[in-house]
Amino acid sequence: MASRLKLVIINFFKKHRIPIFFIALAAIVLPEITVYFHRPNRGFDIYGYLNAGNDALKLENLYRISEPGKNNTWPPFFSFFCVPLALSQKFLGLPVTKELWYFFNFMAFILAMQMISLLLYKKKPSFLPGNDRFDFTSDLVFVPFFLILPGFIKNFFMLQINMFVLFLVIAGFFFYTRERNWVAGLFFGLAASIKAFPGLFLIYFLLRKQWRVSGAILLWAIGFTVSPVLFYGIERFSNLMIEWMSISFFKPFIVGYHSYLNQSLYAFWERLLAHQVHITQAGSMMIKSANYLSIITISIIVFSSILSVPYKKLSISGFIEFSMICVMMMLFPPIAWEHYWVLLLPATASAYYCLKKMPQVFTTAVKSLFVTYIILTAVPYIFSKSAITYFLKMHSSGMFSGLVLLFALVILHRNINLAAVSD
Description:
Blueprint: H1 2-15, H2 17-38, H3 46-58, H4 76-81, H5 83-92, H6 94-121, E1 124-126, E2 133-135, H7 139-146, H8 149-157, H9 162-177, H10 181-194, H11 200-207, H12 211-226, H13 229-250, H14 265-276, H15 285-307, H16 316-331, H17 345-357, H18 364-382, H19 387-394, H20 397-422
Parallel strand pairs: 1-2
Helix pairs in contact: 2-6, 3-5, 5-6, 6-9, 6-17, 7-17, 9-10, 10-12, 11-12, 14-15, 16-17, 16-20, 17-20, 18-19, 18-20
């Protein structure tokens, strides 16, 4: 009886998947349009972008009121990247600017999903049917998206930039696989100039001895990063870079203790050592040392796995390597809010690809880690206002969800290459 009911439900959703998709899309988008036009407390993070853009327009000191984790903590180029938003606010008003930014990021998601699908399945999802594409209601799109749903919703709720950063790194990898290294370098370099940690891809390509794309990334990143010197001059720009480096890497960073919403590695160590076992103070050298040691350990494990096999950039193995760097890019910064988890989309997409197309590599260990990831992601979302969620996030459930997914990818990467050798 249960199996028949399950079959009926599955057939119903398959038969009516297109209207269901558009109803769900309208349910997400239409309320947001109304909300963003009438409630200024939604989309809060865009205010930081607008302030940064306005400071760049006025050539102000970008970090005059900044400190670690507060106000403008982005590289100087980011403020100039936000100038179009500031101009939109000035000439079109705040509500319209919020809507434009919302749909700009939604389009970034659509394009990112299309490139992921082209890389994995050699087809792209579309709103229209065709022989060379599948529709957006396919499980190939829905399942990876569903597995990052809490981060996706939070990203649009806060009007964050992470979906656009995800688009940039996916576009960079996409053009890299097409042998268009300068275009790939542009996208990777722009991402690294907006948020520093996409620079991990430069390390990855250098270790893989991909000299052309590495050089392109480096040149584009330097070009974008130093471009504000054209407006500030050498001396003022140098001072801005020194201030940003101090805020980002040298001043005491106390964010994990105060907010359980921060799910970074740094926040985990701060909560554990300063708040839970009380063996040090927040922002201490012990916490920094534990954080750096964990980053180094994870990097050694991941890069050892990557470098243990020959490089095949057009294979699923190459895409999994790309996905690993995306996960590390999310975990390593001192701040990792929930909306950062959209960066896991390549990881969930590649894992689902393996489950569908290569079930023999989806071993019990991978399944166990994947189920753990789902539990750690879903439980805090479903019980969002409960003591369960507070307990899980205080104990860094988000960080552990990223870690278990990362190690699931490491095992998948190994299994795929072992299977290739045995064949």
